Amino acid sequence: MSDLKARFEKAAEDVKQLSERPDNDTLLKLYALYKQGSDGDVSGPKPGFFDFVGTAKYEAWAKLKGTKAEDAQQKYVDLVNKLGG
Prior knowledge:
By secondary structure, the chain is mainly α. It is built from 4 helices and no strands.
């Protein structure tokens, strides 16, 4: 396992232990970076209009389309570290 992959997985665990819940914008960034780093480009149908949370998550992830998994993983690790994880 690469060093980055290990740090990414550790950050995914650390984020669950944050002392404060991040604001919604930060949560969307975390979600999108995690999905891009682990699953690649956005996939599946966009959630329905009245699924506001699902739509916001989908759109945040879609904005990262084309970002390399390694870049998303590094940004995720950096953001979690910035939040105190």
